[in-house]
Amino acid sequence: MENEKIIQQQEKKALFISILLMAVFISMIVYGIKGVGVDLPTCISNVQPYETGKVVQVSDKEYEIYYVARMWFFDPQNVEIPVGSKVRIYLTSLDVTHGLHIWGTNVNLMAIPNAVNYYEVKFNKEGEYIVSCHEYCGIAHQNMIGKIIVKSSIENLGQNINNIQTAAQVGGEKTW
Ligand SMILES: [Cu+2]
């Protein structure tokens, strides 16, 4: 009888600790999403697969980069944006499965033919961010390198203005 009581108490303790642990784990997930802004990359269906890469300036510090991955380069290869920009990244592939990782950020997407993957990132620090393929895609896989150059102000951007379309030019349309 005495033994049963002790076992019951120990069971209660174990139950309490496991519930407490569950609460800690769930609150860590909530903190990750709300506090740190951790998000999962998503495959989206409201953007048609496209064949040419482009950079769209939506507003002052808001950009969209439409990446195309193919053997063995990214289009666009180099992109310049002002510091503090919010960038929506769209990615598709024209041939095989590639990957896209932006060094120093948590952007890590797969480039899949006939599908568009999406992630949003904010660049708070100036510098050159390497964009590389992380999915072995053939003989020249290691050449799949691009750059996102984050500059202190928009006046310093040296890129060809023809490569940038404003949202008005695109007409807010996300289909081609
Ligand atoms: Cu590759």
Topology:
Layout: H1 2-34, E1 42-44, E2 54-59, E3 62-70, E4 73-75, E5 78-82, E6 85-93, E7 98-102, E8 108-111, E9 116-123, E10 127-132, E11 145-151, E12 164-166, H2 167-170
Parallel strand pairs: 2-12, 3-6, 5-11
Antiparallel strand pairs: 1-9, 2-3, 3-4, 6-9, 7-8, 7-10, 10-11
This protein binds copper (II) ion.
Copper (II) ion is lined by residues 98, 133, 135-137, 141, 144.
Helix-strand makeup class: alpha+beta
Written as H for each helix and E for each strand, in order along the chain, the element string is: HEEEEEEEEEEEEH
- Tally the beta strands: 12
- The helix fraction, in percent, is 10-25%
Strand content: 35-45%
The distinct ligands, each listed once, are:
copper (II) ion
Q: What CATH architecture label of the largest domain applies?
A: Sandwich
CATH class of the largest domain: Mainly Beta
**Total of helices:** 2
Parts with pLDDT < 50 across at least 5 consecutive residues: 169-176
The profile of the biggest β sheet is: 7 strands, mixed
The dominant shape is elongated
CATH-defined topology of the largest domain: Immunoglobulin-like
